[in-house]
Q: What sequence folds into this?
């Protein structure tokens, strides 16, 4: 069973702990509104979807993340930007989306 529970961590505006057979893994949104996850998290898409779902319904307006998720972040409404010479992904809250991978026949 996989559980993703909201928790508290200083320096975070949102913080989650995922518990699964593989262990405990963290993810969240830091006080710079940057989404992050534990590099060893085996279910990064689940963590990303959890964070995006909450970010879509917050008063915060702009989010960034690095390419640490192992998937195409453009599908989730992010676009590429350059910040301090490095490539990041950014999205306004109203640009975020949770794409469905279900394809009807």
A:
């Amino acid at each position: 069973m996989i559980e993703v529970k909201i928790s508290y961590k200083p320096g975070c505006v949102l913080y989650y702990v995922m518990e699964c057979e593989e262990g405990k893994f963290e993810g969240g949104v830091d006080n710079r509104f940057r989404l992050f996850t534990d590099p060893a998290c085996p279910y990064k898409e689940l963590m990303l979807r959890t964070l995006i779902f909450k970010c879509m319904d917050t008063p915060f307006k702009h989010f960034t993340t690095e390419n640490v998720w192992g998937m195409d972040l453009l599908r989730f409404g992010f676009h590429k930007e350059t910040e301090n010479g490095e490539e990041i992904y950014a999205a306004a809250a109203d640009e975020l989306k949770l794409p469905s991978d279900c394809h009807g026949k």
